[in-house]
Structure formats: structure tokens, C-alpha cells
């Protein structure tokens, strides 16, 4: 169920220790989609819908090239040894290949006949020399049972199969991706070769997810929920950020998710103002908050979740005031989502809410329309509201414009209307980063809108970000993220441990 339209969610009160924006939201804003939560395990008992994806890609190609005929060709990631070592590098499957196969094996190939809709997967044959070290590989029979393809052959048959298909297709085209074709592979029998459209076709079709893909992202979120809660339960007694990163990773691995969607951000105190903080090794004593941006990956599909909470189990008045502004930004932006909504407009809404909140706290001063027009709020909310999510954390198809002269939209990773079926992160934040804010304080265009004396009380807040993974629907949205974000509940969990 989509979140209800926001009513009066927040009220400003004066309290000991400073002003606070108190939420008066209903618990319904924290209820996630029961359907998606209940069904994903059942959905994932089926096969990854690779052939359906191949057909969608073919349809896209034909929308650009009428009457297109031929074969789609893709390669998996090849095994690569570490330098000065006899072991392979950590394997990450090539996402374009996975989209048309659901196969997470190295050194494979796939061809999909656009005319017959037949998919043929090529896997490595048994190498007797490697069996003693690595065991038996997947057999052709096992692969046929596991993956959504019509036929499985061995890679030793690849060139002969390509030659046969090309020779028997009049005026046929082979579609491939530049720099993703091995030197030993030949397309000599094909009349035409197209290296320009396939990558685009896959990137565009990946934006709208089918039920199985949503189930994979929901599963990644479910695993990540357990890991986020484990960090909440241990944060009060941790001495260093690395302890909490280890707890998160251990919980994910124990639940079957060996891979992370991205390098975790475990930022305490002022480090939370660094958007992509990577050190995760600082002591936490004496610091107010922890920002945890971390998400597991499940069968190549990502989750991307951020929570910010007090290390000692109780928000300071300043931290709680900023948290409540960010939560209001997120809830109202989620409530605005539906098919066709322009993401740029939702991002603008987040800035307007941030300006209202910072004005109430006295950090900003002056006319809110002037503050918006001058882009002064970018000092506190410098990044985009979110991005598409799928096989990549920053998934394909967003059409960003990093050369935009408007600083409010320059780092927005998605531009334009949102289609139903896309998954997008909603991750507003407010940050107190000296490096970013101090130039605004020195610029008369912006400094007249910032009260430096009030700002001084907020530096130790560091940064607050709240991030969920949202499915856009025709009439609203569904939230795949089940991690607690109610500030009182987070405080309760921390204090109880």
C-alpha cells in the first residue's frame, strides 16, 4: 500500500537544550508492503526470467531498427588471476550477460536468436587438471535445469555454432557490446555486425523490473534488515567503526549473502558529513551519531539502505531536530511517487522541506523563496535525492546531467518521469560539512541566509541520511525496505542492549 498523503507531520516546540521538530506521524508510514514481504521467497523458487528479458531487449531493438533480425551475443566475465598469485580475482558477473541468462558462472557465452526466441548458453567444459583443485564444474544438464535457456552447450562449440547460425540466416545481424567480445570469437558468417544498440537496449529495459527482480531486491533488503538491526543492537558498546562493519558483514554472510552491493559506509560523528566515507576505522568515543549506509546483494541484485542513529541510545536535541527534518523530507517525497512523476520535481520538494525545517531551527534565515532561488540549501543537501536500483547500486537508465549549471540538480542521478516498475532510492540528507558550507559562509550571496551562530551548535551532528528502496507503481509506490527508522524505536533498541 502506498503511503497516505502527508497531513501535519511535524510541529516545532521549544525545549530544554534547544528547539526540536517533533513528529506526529502515524505508524502507517513505517508499514512496508506485506505482499512483497510475504511472497518473495515463493517467487524466488522459480527461474530468473532470462528469456523474457531477451525478448524485451529484442523488442527495444526493433523499436529503433524496424524489422531487425539476427542474434544477440553476450559474454560473461572471464576468470582473471590475481597478480603474483595463483588464485582468481573475486568474481563479479557482468550485468549485461546476467540479464539475459541469470547465470553467475565465469567464462560463459550466450546467444539469443531474435527470430525464434531461442537462447543457447555456453559453459566451460570439464578441465580434468582443475577438478582435483576445484571440484567438478556445473554440467550442461545441471545448467539447463537451473537457467532459463533452451539449450546448453560447451564453450568449445561456440564458434562452430555461430558460424552455422550466421550461414543459415540471410541478411542477419549479430548484436554485441563493444570491448566485450573475446579475441578468439568470430562473427565471419554474419552479413552485418551492430556494436551500438545492444548495450543501450539492455540498459533501458533494465529500468522496469519484473516480479522476479523485485523479489530479489526484496530478499536483499530482508537480509540487510537483520544486519542493520544487529548494528543497532551493538552500537552502544562498540569502540571503533570497524567493529560495526564486521557485525554487518557477518550477519549478511550468515544469512547467505556473501556479497555486498557496495562498500559499506560506517561513519561516526562528523565523518557522517562525508557522503562516500570509506575508512570505517575511526574510534567512536565522544561522538553523537552513526550513519550506516550498507546493503547486501542477493544473486546480483542490490539493496541500498541508510540509517542514522545515536551512538549512546539517545538523540541530542540538535541531532533529533535534524533527523526529524530529514524524515519528513523522505516521507513526503515517497508519498509523492507514482507513475509519470518527474523525479526532478520530487528532488525540488525535498529541498523545499529542508529549507522550511532549517528556517524553523534558525540555521537558515530570510525568505524561503529567495533561499531556494539562490540554491543556498545545496550547502546542506548537496547530493541528489536518489537513483535507480537493480543489478547495480547506481543502476542504469537514469539519464543524469552532470554538466547541469544548476547546482541543485547537477548530481541528480535520475532525470525526468518515473515509469511504473522502476525501483528508486529515496535518500534525502542534511549535512554539516565544513568544506562544503564554509565557502557559502564566505559568499555574500549565501551568507545572508545562514545564521553562523546557530549553525555552530550543529557541526557535531555530522550528517543525517535516511534511505529506502521504493518500487514506483501506477498509483503510488511500495517500500521494499523494512529496517526500522522510527527514532523512538531506534533509541529503544539501542538502549536495551
UniProtKB/TrEMBL annotation:
It holds the Pfam family AMP_N. Its EC number is 3.4.11.9. Residues 48-183 form the Aminopeptidase P N-terminal domain. The keyword Membrane does not apply. Its cofactor is Mn(2+). It comes from the Eukaryota. It catalyses: Release of any N-terminal amino acid, including proline, that is linked to proline, even from a dipeptide or tripeptide. It is an enzyme of class 3 (hydrolase). GO terms for molecular function: manganese ion binding; metalloaminopeptidase activity. The keyword Manganese applies. Belongs to the peptidase M24B family. Catalyzes the removal of a penultimate prolyl residue from the N-termini of peptides. This is Xaa-Pro aminopeptidase.
Amino acid at each position: 500500500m502506498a503511503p497516505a498523503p502527508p497531513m501535519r507531520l511535524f510541529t516545532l516546540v521549544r525545549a530544554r537544550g534547544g528547539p526540536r521538530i517533533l513528529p506526529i506521524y502515524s505508524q502507517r508510514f513505517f508499514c512496508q508492503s506485506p505482499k512483497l514481504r510475504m511472497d518473495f521467497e515463493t517467487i524466488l523458487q522459480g527461474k530468473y526470467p532470462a528469456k523474457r528479458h531477451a525478448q524485451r531487449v529484442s523488442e527495444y531493438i526493433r523499436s529503433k531498427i524496424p524489422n531487425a533480425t539476427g542474434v544477440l551475443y553476450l559474454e560473461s566475465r572471464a576468470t582473471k588471476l590475481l597478480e603474483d598469485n595463483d588464485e582468481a580475482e573475486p568474481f563479479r558477473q557482468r550485468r549485461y550477460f546476467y540479464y539475459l541468462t541469470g547465470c553467475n558462472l565465469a567464462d560463459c557465452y550466450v546467444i539469443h536468436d531474435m527470430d525464434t526466441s531461442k537462447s543457447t548458453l555456453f559453459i566451460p567444459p570439464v578441465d580434468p587438471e582443475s577438478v582435483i583443485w576445484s571440484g567438478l564444474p556445473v554440467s550442461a544438464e545441471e545448467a539447463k535445469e537451473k537457467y532459463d535457456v533452451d539449450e546448453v552447450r560447451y564453450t568449445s562449440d561456440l564458434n562452430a555454432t555461430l558460424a552455422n547460425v550466421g550461414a543459415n540466416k540471410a541478411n542477419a545481424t549479430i548484436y554485441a557490446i563493444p570491448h566485450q567480445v573475446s579475441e578468439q570469437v568470430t562473427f565471419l558468417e554474419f552479413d552485418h555486425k551492430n556494436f551500438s544498440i545492444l548495450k543501450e537496449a539492455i540498459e533501458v529495459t533494465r529500468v522496469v523490473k519484473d516480479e522476479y527482480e523485485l523479489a530479489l531486491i526484496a530478499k536483499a533488503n530482508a537480509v540487510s534488515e537483520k544486519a542493520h538491526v544487529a548494528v543497532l543492537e551493538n552500537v552502544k558498546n562498540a569502540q571503533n567503526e570497524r567493529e560495526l562493519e564486521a557485525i554487518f558483514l557477518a550477519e549478511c554472510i550468515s544469512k547467505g549473502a556473501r556479497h555486498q552491493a557496495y562498500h559499506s559506509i560506517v561513519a561516526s560523528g562528523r565523518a557522517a558529513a562525508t557522503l562516500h566515507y570509506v575508512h570505517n576505522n575511526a574510534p567512536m568515543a565522544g561522538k553523537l551519531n552513526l550513519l550506516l549506509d550498507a546493503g547486501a546483494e542477493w544473486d546480483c541484485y542490490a539493496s541500498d539502505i541508510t540509517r542514522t542513529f545515536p551512538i549512546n541510545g539517545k538523540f541530542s536535541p540538535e541531532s533529533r531536530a535534524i533527523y526529524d527534518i530529514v524524515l519528513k523530507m523522505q516521507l513526503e517525497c515517497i508519498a509523492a511517487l507514482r507513475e509519470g512523476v518527474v523525479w526532478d520535481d520530487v528532488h525540488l520538494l525535498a529541498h523545499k522541506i529542508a529549507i522550511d525545517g532549517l528556517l524553523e531551527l534558525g540555521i537558515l534565515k530570510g525568505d524561503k523563496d529567495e533561499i531556494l532561488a539562490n540554491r543556498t540549501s545545496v550547502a546542506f543537501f548537496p547530493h541528489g535525492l536518489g537513483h535507480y536500483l537493480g543489478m547495480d547500486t547506481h543502476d542504469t537508465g537514469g539519464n543524469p546531467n552532470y554538466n547541469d549549471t544548476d547546482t541543485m540538480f547537477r548530481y541528480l542521478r535520475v532525470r525526468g518521469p518515473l515509469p511504473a516498475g522502476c525501483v528508486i532510492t529515496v535518500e534525502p540528507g542534511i549535512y554539516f560539512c565544513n568544506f562544503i558550507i564554509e565557502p557559502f559562509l564566505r559568499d555574500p550571496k549565501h551568507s545572508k541566509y545562514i545564521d553562523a551562530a546557530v549553525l555552530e551548535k550543529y557541526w557535531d551532528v555530522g550528517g543525517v541520511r535516511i534511505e529506502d528502496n521504493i518500487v514506483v507503481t501506477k498509483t503510488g509506490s511500495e517500500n521494499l525496505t523494512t529496517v526500522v527508522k522510527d527514532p523512538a524505536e531506534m533509541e529503544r533498541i539501542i538502549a536495551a542492549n
